[in-house]
Design a protein that fits this description.
alpha+beta
Length: 1212
């Protein structure tokens, strides 16, 4: 056996074969007959062991402590078949809330619940109900830690690399290997020895049993690392956890099992000093320990003591026989802090010589809550101290704060050790939306909120409960990388997207985490009854439970309210309590502004331009300009117009900052953060076709500039590009160039074809001085720009300073052709833009104007995918495109004001949609007491957009002639537009539209209703006139837009009420006429999002329909999914349509909700999917999880541009 072990561990012998051929190496030195006997013995052993090994499919539903949310496969094995106990790794059980199943050898799947995991060492237990195993009898593997010895032949049985069963061989080479180091910021085992062997285990083998030829488990597979020698690869050297402490834990857990099958709360005493020790062998560290001050007589005494215990056999020496334990680190604030120091050599505990971890841990576990006498040697001097033994479970977080899509817990012993910090501090495991929006990074420590210190999680929760929706509270934190520097930020409190905070508490007896809603004090008074009612409904919908492990634990009372915490009408809240300050100083001006300082021909305003209270500024305000012009009144006459223009435009420009929660990333949006000040919130791309990228790389643009086009007493309107305001969901903030103020805004209009959006703000939230200084810009849509025209390009930098350059138009009507993205999303079509000879690059957006200040174009940003990489560029969108829509919104507002003179009446505010009854925030807004929503109290329905539902592209007439276009039509189009000399050709049609039925790709559109067309403007004007004629009996004037009543459902549902136009087309060598019924799109896009099992569902937005294909039942489209959810677990990925649920058709979201509302918690569900690209149909199954992933909706009130979170309660 000794020769066999040497062969297996010798690299020269192992190089000749791969990991799977190690068995032939091990048996090489035995006679043939002996090889057959050994092979038969191993076969019998494996036949007995393999049925006890299970595949664990584990999903962590929330990020917590060291582990992120996600889903993975691992291995475990049954160690108690009567009680249903499975042994696996700690990092498999995970410290956070999990949902898991065990797959046995016969492919039978049984739910399992976490029962216990060790606070330090990498082992844990899960439990299952043996009666649920119907088609095989469970078997178990006995634990035999004492059987581990050097030279022992072993087999590792697991599901290696995701396989069902993988058996690999090896030989134990060491019993005292250091614990593996997994991560600098994650979980690491310490204060223990590991077994080391040569075996090629890989991913998925975590938790595999390491068995001897008798079928006994001598170790637990935990971790490993690759090594290489020259050009040859050595096998993976694996580390196996000894089972001594596992056996103790198993015996204590078995005592927690009740006769009726239920479990008591496990209690396994675990003690520690909050100090890390390392083992230093005499061969490597005798000189080291002597330099540390170990006396020679102490070393002699220790050697003599260990030799007496181990005997004379050097091969069978126990761990700790050839060295001593040395203090490596001490956690600040722990029991050992100030008593032990790194470099101390441990000699005795309570008078007993201790040189290895097992003895040390046994003594600490037996003395939890008391003190032990510790003897160490430091610098040659013996020291003795009485140190209290810390309960490890007390410093292992058992509570999790679910805050705005993020996770916060108390700093665990694991992370405190990694970062040398005191345990119990408020630790950000995942920032989520609220903390991420405040730029609080992952792994940060929060020290104060709203002026209140937050030394622990309870204090932080109480501080949160004192905040109100819409409030801005100062928050202080630090990061471990800069621990000596405290950072301050502003937390924008918003309960509307995720609801109020939830506190999850581990319940090991039930195998779940219990949820408690921490309602803000301002809403808690009337929420108790509503939450109780919601909890009763959830319990009625949950399956019955007898309290045994055979059933899924029932949902706790109030769990439904936790999922959608503001679950009913809120009480009236005093206006004073909810009134919030809305003014904030502008960011500090950077020392260096490269674009502003280095580019020739660029004018940048001086820093003192913001001295708004100076006498010069007041004098300038009287004549309608800002401060700088008055300050520079002595400037040369040749530059006075330039200064005047800059001040005039500055008073009408704003910076636009958009943040989109992960639960509202609709319509294939490619980023969740569109910020002028930072790239916070950008996520790594996901390249798999089954995934929707959460966000692409950080945006290249540093400033998102919009222009104010209207301001009245109650309503301000801002025009901005759709590469900034991409969708209607999210939080929009405006920073004004006229005055250092910041206010929220609501999305009022999103043009489905052109690159502009209109947002509104409430001027009442601004100070009187700010309202006086803000001056809307004047739009000058006519005459159209021509090549060679001089224009003024004016932008607002991130420091709120004007950048100005005079440029010339090089192309006044460049056609925009943006190809479809990998993930369908908005893209500008039928658009002609202005290009200049000089601009500021893609980093700045702004306006193009003439010297009188008339805005000729919006200088905006465009985004497209080029070879699957994001690319951005800037161009000018002529004012003639968006000016009619601005005017329409202003007219609509004036009409609303006529019906509701003065401020909106209580009756108008109470006209919130029925869905808003499920949200406390919406109810507070309905009472008119929410200052965050004051601007949105203005009723302003968005106009709908009439469309042709066919995407056209320009084709040069010279090319069209080669396709056979008749000469008379070529001449006619040349006379119509001598500049463009082009014809429009059908590129594609919108799926499900009438245009798709009558038009074909490559059809050339020559005329509409008898009028020749050669540009996009011609097409849009004729379509608007035709629609206006059918609606009002009078054709539309130039630049007039047609609005129709937006339907409550999908935009396509109202197409039957729209008129038809006659198209003259050239197809197959002939000129033909066809009639096409017009379509229309809603002015705010998607108006409802459904979250079910962690998947986000919606009606397919226009970007999807532009692909040209819709299945028969296409009303339910998956646009996103969330990590740690059933959708992640079972593969309910994005870019699919849901056509059936449990055999019932789901043609739209209402039908889908009606079906899933009937499903109880833990129900098995069959879902039929259709892929958006391949059109392939497939069926998958999943289990619902109402505890961690309830069903809820986000519903848009288009008249007020407000989104409301609405719970979807299960039917009784």
């Amino acid at each position: 056996m000794a020769d066999t072990g040497a062969a297996a561990s010798n690299p020269e012998l192992a190089l000749g074969g791969r990991a799977g051929s190690l068995e032939s190496v091990e048996l090489n030195g035995l006679p043939e007959a002996a090889q057959e006997v050994a092979s038969d013995a191993w076969k019998k052993t494996l036949d007995a062991v393999v049925p006890a090994v299970v595949v664990l499919k584990v999903t962590q539903t929330r990020s917590h402590d060291t582990e992120p949310a996600g889903s993975s496969y691992a291995t475990g094995f049954v160690v108690d078949k009567a009680r249903g106990l499975i042994l696996t790794n700690r990092h498999v059980v995970t410290p956070g809330p999990v949902v898991a199943e065990a797959i046995f050898l016969n492919r039978e799947e049984v739910p399992v619940q976490p029962l216990y995991y060790d606070p330090v060492h990498d082992f844990g237990f899960m439990r299952f109900d043996p009666s649920r195993l119907q088609y095989m009898q469970p078997v178990e593997v006995p634990l035999a830690p004492q059987a581990a010895e050097v030279g022992l032949e072993i087999r590792v049985v697991g599901n290696d690399s995701g396989e069902k069963i993988s058996i690999l061989s090896g030989t134990l080479a060491r019993l005292d290997r250091d614990a593996p180091h997994y991560s600098r910021k994650g979980y690491n085992d310490f204060n223990t020895f590991y077994l080391q062997a040569a075996s090629g285990t890989k991913g998925g083998s975590s938790g595999s049993p390491v068995v001897n030829i008798r079928g006994q488990a001598v170790g637990l597979n935990a971790g490993g690392k690759n090594k290489a020698a020259s050009a040859y690869y050595l096998p993976l050297h694996r580390d196996y956890l000894p089972l001594h402490r596992v056996v103790r834990a198993l015996h204590l857990l078995q005592a927690c099992h009740k006769p009726d099958g239920s479990w008591e709360q496990p209690h396994i005493p675990r003690g520690d000093f909050q100090a890390t020790f390392v083992f230093k062998g005499y061969d490597e560290a005798s000189q080291l320990v002597r330099r540390l001050g170990l006396r020679q007589e102490t070393e002699a005494a220790v050697r003599a003591s260990k030799q007496q215990q181990d005997g004379e056999s050097m091969l069978q020496e126990r761990p700790g026989s050839t060295g001593m334990l040395v203090v490596e680190s001490v956690v600040p604030g722990g029991p050992a802090d100030g008593r032990l120091e790194p470099g101390d050599v441990l000699v005795r505990l309570n008078g007993q010589i201790v040189t290895e971890f097992l003895t040390m841990e046994t003594m600490l576990d037996d003395n939890v809550g008391s003190t032990v006498q510790v003897e160490v040697e430091r610098g040659g001097a013996p020291l003795t101290a009485d140190i209290s033994v810390q309960d490890l479970h007390a410093v292992t977080p058992s509570r999790l704060l679910d805050l705005g899509g993020g996770a916060v817990n108390e700093l665990s012993y694991q992370q405190a050790r990694n970062n040398r910090a005191a345990v119990g501090q408020v630790y950000v495991a995942e920032p989520g939306y609220l903390l991420g929006k405040a730029s609080v990074p992952k792994y940060a420590i929060i020290t104060a909120l709203a002026g209140a210190p937050t030394p622990n999680l309870a204090a932080f929760v109480e501080a949160l409960k004192g905040l109100q929706h819409g409030q801005r509270a100062p928050l202080e934190y630090y990061t471990f990388g800069e621990r000596h520097r405290r950072k301050s930020t502003i937390l924008h409190v918003n309960w509307s997207w995720y609801g109020p905070p939830l506190v999850w508490t581990r319940n090991n007896a039930a195998g779940i985490w219990d949820c408690q809603v921490e309602l803000p004090h301002s809403l808690a008074s009337s929420q108790a009854e509503t939450a109780a009612a919601a909890g009763t409904a959830a319990e009625a919908a949950a399956p019955a439970s007898d309290g045994k492990t055979a059933k899924r634990p029932p949902l706790p009372r109030g769990a439904a309210a936790a999922a959608a915490p503001a679950a009913a009408a809120a009480p009236p809240v005093s206006p004073t309590a909810l009134s919030l300050p809305r003014l904030r100083s502008v960011p500090a001006i950077p020392v260096h502004e490269d674009v502003e300082k280095q580019q020739p021909g660029v004018t940048a305003q001086a820093d003192d331009a913001r001295l708004l209270n100076s006498p010069a500024a007041k004098a300038a305000a009287e004549v309608g300009v800002g401060a700088t012009f008055a300050t520079d009144a002595a400037a040369a006459d040749g530059n006075s117009w330039r200064l005047l223009l800059e001040e005039q435009l500055r008073c009408g420009l704003v910076l636009v900052d958009v943040e989109i929660p992960l639960v509202a990333l609709a319509d294939g949006v490619h980023s969740r953060s569109f910020s002028d000040l930072s790239h916070r919130g950008a996520l790594a791309p996901a390249h798999s076709s089954r995934l929707v990228p959460p966000a692409r790389a950080p945006r290249l643009r540093s400033c998102s500039c919009g222009m104010i086009v209207h301001q009245s007493e109650e309503l301000g309107l801002v025009v901005v590009d759709r590469n900034t305001v991409t969708i209607g969901c999210g939080d929009v903030m405006l920073s004004f160039g006229a005055f250092p103020a910041e206010v929220p805004a609501n999305v009022r209009f999103l043009h489905p074809l052109h690159n502009f959006a209109i947002v509104s703000y409430d001027p009442r939230q601004l100070s009187e001085e700010a309202r006086r200084l803000i001056r809307p810009l004047k739009l000058s849509p006519a005459p159209a720009l021509r090549r060679g025209d001089a224009v003024e390009l004016v932008c607002l930098s991130k420091s709120l300073r004007i950048l100005h350059r005079t440029s010339s138009v090089t192309n006044p009507a460049m056609s925009v052709l943006i190809h479809k993205a990998e993930v369908p999303r908005f893209r500008a079509v039928h658009e002609e833009v202005v290009k200049l000879d000089q601009d500021f690059g893609l980093a700045y957006s702004g306006v193009l104007c003439d010297r009188s200040g008339g805005v000729r174009a919006l200088w905006g940003s465009y985004s497209e995918q080029v070879s699957k990489e994001e690319s951005e560029w800037t161009a000018g969108l002529p004012s003639a495109i968006f000016a009619p829509w601005v005017e329409k919104l202003i007219q609509e507002h004036m009409a609303q004001q006529g019906q509701q003179p003065g401020t909106p009446s209580h009756a108008a505010r109470a006209a919130a949609p029925a869905e808003a009854e499920g949200s406390a925030f919406a109810a507070a807004a309905a009472h008119g007491n929410n200052s965050e929503a004051q601007g949105s109290a203005v009723v302003l329905p968005p106009p709908a957009v009439v469309t042709l539902d066919a995407e056209l592209e320009p084709l040069l007439l010279s090319k069209a002639a080669q396709f056979g276009l008749p000469t008379e039509w070529i001449s006619r189009l040349v006379r119509l537009d001598p500049e463009r000399r082009q014809v429009l050709r059908v590129h594609s049609c919108v799926a499900g539209s009438h245009a798709q039925q009558v038009l074909k790709d490559a059809d050339m559109v020559l005329a509409i209703n008898g009028q020749p067309v050669s540009s996009y403007n011609d097409v849009e004007h004729i379509i608007a006139s035709a629609a206006a004629l059918a609606t009002t009996g009078a054709p539309a004037a130039a630049h007039e837009v047609l609005t129709v009543a937006a339907p409550s459902g999908a935009a396509a549902g109202a197409q039957g009420a729209l008129p038809e136009v006659c198209l003259t087309i050239f197809r197959d060598g002939t000129v033909q006429e066809v009639s096409v019924r017009l379509g229309h799109e809603d002015g705010l896009g998607t108006n409802q999002l459904v979250h079910w099992c962690g998947a986000q569902l919606q009606y397919p937005h226009r970007g999807v329909r532009e692909l040209g294909f819709l299945p028969e039942r296409h009303g339910v489209y998956i646009s996103r999914w969330h990590h740690g959810s059933p959708a992640h677990r079972y593969g309910l990925f994005a870019l699919h349509w849901v056509s059936e649920v449990n055999g019932q058709p789901t043609p739209d979201l209402d039908a889908f909700l009606e079906v899933v509302r009937q499903l109880p918690d833990g129900a098995d569900v069959r879902v039929r999917l259709v892929h958006f690209e391949s059109s392939k149909s497939k069926v998958l199954t999943l289990k619902t999880d109402h505890r961690y992933w309830p069903t809820w909706r986000l519903v848009l009130d288009p008249a007020r541009a407000e989104w409301t979170r609405v719970p979807v309660s299960a039917s009784a």
